């Protein structure tokens, strides 16, 4: 599910006009305020996704299906190890039923994700970059791909560029190592709170 979401996001952002435009003058210029506000928004979106999942997915039925398919797989594996042909044949008769049940549950999982993706894309492309800019927090440690590294800071230092019509200074978002990119902060907050939110809303999704 996560891989599909990331792949589709990368694909969509290849189209003209869908690449986020990060502001150079964020509404929350200091890192503390931007980190707190962005975290609150991320938690709110995570909560909205959980409530949407609860509304569109039969969680209890999904848990029952997972229990039944798990027991079937366990028995089938043990039967193969023991080379119990009679038991294998009996379990094979239920294979198509187990696969159908698993497919139905996977489709239920996809439904809230598809409903969530479009508004999420719009927020990521048009709203958040214009509010927060490209970095929103400061981490005491450098996390690859999620925070600015020393090389990022070196590459983003002001460079004087002159052409025939104007003189301007170009500068990237990284000023010190450890600055957390906007998307990286949302990712970290989601990982930190998704389990808590799922437990509170009773929307924990079993793993197939």
From TrEMBL:
UniProt superkingdom: Archaea
Metal-binding found in the keyword field: no
PANTHER family registered for this protein in UniProt: INTEGRAL MEMBRANE PROTEIN (PTHR42198)
Places the protein is found: Membrane
Membrane topology: Multi-pass membrane protein
Organism: Candidatus Nitrosocosmicus oleophilus
GO CC aspect terms: membrane
Leader sequence segment: none
Name of the protein in its database record: DUF106 domain-containing protein
Coiled coil: 81-111
TM ranges: 31-52, 113-132, 180-198
Keywords recorded for this protein, A-Z: Coiled coil, Membrane, Transmembrane, Transmembrane helix
Membrane keyword on record: yes
